[in-house]
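Worked example

This section walks through a single chain of length 594. The input is the sequence exactly as stored; nothing has been trimmed or padded.
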Amino acid sequence: MSLLRPDLSDLPAYRRPPEPPTGLRLHMNEAASDWPEAAREALLTRLRDLPFHLYPERQDELTERLRKRVGAPENGLLLGPSSGALLDLVATAGLSAGDAVAIPDPGFSLYPMLVRRNGGQVRAIPQGTSFSLEPWFSALDCRQIWLTLPNNPTGAWISPAALEPLLEAAAARPEPPLVVIDEAYAEFAPATHRLAVDRYPNLVLLRTFSKALASAAWRIGYLLGDPALVAKLAALQLPYSLTAASLEALDVALDFAAEFEPAVRALPDRRDRLSAALPAHRAAPSAANFLHLSPDPSPLLEAAGMKVRRLPGTDAARVTLGTEADTQRVASALGGSLPAPAPRPRRRLLVLDIDGVLIDADRSFLEAVGRALADLRPSLAWSEGTYRAFKRLGGFNNDFRLAAGALALAEAFGDGDLQALVEGAAGRGFPQLEARIQALEPAAQAAVQKHYADTIQLERPLASLEDLQATGWDLAVLTGRPPEELELAWRVLGFQLPAVCDAAPHLRKPEPAGLLQLADAFRAEEILFVGDTVDDASCLRAAVAARPELAWRFAALGPDRARFAALQDVQSASLRDLLPMLNQAPFSNCQELP
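Given that input, the structure is written out below as tokens.
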């Protein structure tokens, strides 16, 4: 008599290939070094005082801390006991018996077991040592598609722009498959796929702290996705599945995030130097913290006292990047010499608002709002002064919300000139009217957009793509425009950039989520946000609080810049005046530009 599912009778356990009992650990894709001493001592202090007899109660608190740090909406993030456990939860929740799951081949050796133990059928997508996109289109009829970027064990990676056709095709199907992007090694890649999460409700992103925060021992990961989907996954998670010690470790690691960052930032250069230094072995292009080497280097490396991951059935092995000294040992054992590291340029990201920064849209939106209010409330005494008072107030950077705010104020206080009322609310806003403003916003949006179709003719670009590219910075946009108006902005500009727009409440400035997502997506170390409103400035300052280990800076533009610029901000009359200064040293000392 069988007491277990018959389909699991031949399912092999997860086991690593044979390996020497001792040696330098270059076989597990672990961080090269342990925690910084200060972080270690801080955690040990907490653990000494941790009550062992109580259940862990901090998961919600740490989820909220991490949610704010990564720019996710409420209920848009789920912590779990490793990213593998979260992937298992996704399979449990989403697969019925016989459902197909597409996985890369070669791929993470745990994937087939997770699929089969949840009743699914594996569909292997041939990849070789590169990431070939075309074969994945044949898998769009699968129930789930699991993409590992960078891939394990090859390190193959594809950029967000290159992956976009597959994501679009998946989302366009009558019954879209769930796309899972496993970004266990994202911190070592040129960019991340963070921006895809808010654009595709059929997509989830998995991350781990094992590599970037050197926390493999604590088994912590997280999942990002559409709040409705994540909430259902959270309901299926076993209670208290994260230990109290692991939660304390996460809290301390986030406190010391800046101390972990240098090792992470240094690794890609070390990886690439090793890849180029091996005379008799080929390294597949890698965006991870390891190299896929052929012919199989295992005998040579094991003889030199190093453990690497053999890849059965292939003439290759996976070699994790260790410290600089460890990597020199690998190079020497394989007949090469590791070149000395060169100075590493910092990743710099220039984030630009659209209206008032990239496009002169002032008259366009002023006219559209005025016409919309004339349609919706003809008796309202509207003026340019009231429009600008709303903009200076903060919280009304979005013109749909501005128009709704004007309607709500008129309902509450009458149709007279609202300018003095708005100016008198500086620092407070109108929280008592918030529910009514939100209720009025859909009608306001429809009316503003109707007239904006005509007033857009008044807009003109304020910079060219060539001007922006000449700075040498990575480029992105953070705008209060909704998606449909962002598309119109690209037409005015004649070019497009990676962008976050006002597509959901958590992405609306002054919330910092958009900036945080862009910093993540570009792996940026220095971020300069260029804006022209108090909401832009407040957005930047909130991002600083969420991720203080990054170097944030705000550049205030426009005639009102003195009203919202702080002492440490850059100030400039226009973007054209600002751009030539970005590569002048020291830029950090530039406060007021012409």
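What to look for: The first strand starts at residue 24 and ends at 26.
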